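INFO batch 0412 | record 1 of 1 | parsing
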Amino acid sequence: MNRFIGWAFLALPFCANASDSLLKAQVESLPVHVQKVETCGAWTQADRAGYYRVVVVDVHEGAGSEIYVQWLTQPTQERRSELVRTLAFPELNDDHSQYATQEMRCRKVGSGIEIAIKAQYEHDTVEKTHAIRVLVKAAGTYAISGMARGSQRR
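INFO prediction complete | emitting tokens
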């Protein structure tokens, strides 16, 4: 019995190395400015269905952030998952009026998603955290509230 335990301990490092990770190389190749990626909610359109992915990236060495929503398809036996669309938010991703995202959460709301963001605005005269909400509808329209410059819609 003790020999069996000894052999088992010898085999452990080999097992741990063998199951490293299937996508480790892809994760290691992510650009360093990608701060957060979160999936939430589902969408359907004609003969396709998928999920939303929210991506937060740092710009200017972390001085600010940009936020994007992507529509990705669910993989099937016939097709791999694919990127369908990427939505940018010019109101938040403005190089001359930058927000630095401190926290981001996403949740499903109806057929769309709501993104809750806590961020600092570069032009505030006192340090203040803004609670920004972005409601994204399945069709790609969105509404933003809580920005330093007031509520804006697109």
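INFO post-check: The first strand starts at residue 34 and ends at 45.
INFO record closed
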